[in-house]
Amino acid sequence: MPSDAKNRPVYVISVAAELVDMHPQTLRLYERKGLIRPGRSSGKTRLYSERDIEHLREIRRLTQELGVNLAGVEEVMRLQHELDDMQGEFEAEIERIESELREQAQRPDALPGVDGRIDPRDRPVYVISIAAELVDMHPQTLRLYERKQLIRPGRSSGKTRLYSERDIEHLREIRRLTQELGVNLAGVEEIMRLRHQLDSTRAGLESNVRRIQEDITERMTKWRTLPQGDVDGLHGDGEDSDQD
């Protein structure tokens, strides 16, 4: 989980319940269903963070304002927790890269690799008729979902809709939510918005990691090509030079 102040567990359940205008028993129910994940004190007392409070207010908005059923809320909060966890994983990855950089300074002959590949699941390849057949939907349904921004197909140079494997995954997820879980369209919109945000965040974090790795590689390559005297000067031995 991210290490910012929003994730610090500080509120006991009575205070948290008052902040979100819910009964403490409701908070316990949501915890059992995995919708929120409060911390624990050394004495096992539940402690809620600002992030938990935000999540509880979001649950109230989904259920009271949008009429999303509990199955839909569970999907939304699962995705929200994935986003929170991803940020923590990114911070851990940055720490790992920084550690690797320090090690590289001691082993200049070994350079980190750079992986600039694009996920093949994002390549737009299926025309709308094929995509509709793959997910057992009518093409008009796919157009409706696009207008509501539940999916975002690519376009060919001739403006033909082209769907990727990830779009197909999203369409199958929409069908599961509506047909199997009975989630209403407002809930589906929230869930797919979070899914798109999750995909974008993941792509952005991976891009940042690659950029950092490229920067490390470039620095280490330059370091290796410096004359030995300059390299020694960069390290420094902490001793003053003799002066007359």
UniProtKB/TrEMBL annotation:
Pfam family, one: MerR_1
Region feature Disordered, mapped onto this chain: 224-244
PANTHER family xref list: HTH-TYPE TRANSCRIPTIONAL REGULATOR YFMP, REDOX-CYCLING DRUG-SENSING TRANSCRIPTIONAL ACTIVATOR SOXR
Species, as recorded: Deinococcus sedimenti
Protein name: MerR family transcriptional regulator
CDD domains: HTH_HspR
Keyword Manganese listed: no
Domain of life from the UniProt record: Bacteria
Key words of the record: Coiled coil, DNA-binding
SMART domains cross-referenced by the UniProt entry: HTH_MERR (SM00422)
InterPro entries assigned: DNA-bd_dom_put_sf (IPR009061), MerR-type_HTH_dom (IPR000551), MerR_fam (IPR047057)
Residues forming coiled coils: 76-107
Limits of the HTH merR-type domain: 10-79, 125-194
SUPFAM superfamilies registered for this protein in UniProt: Putative DNA-binding domain
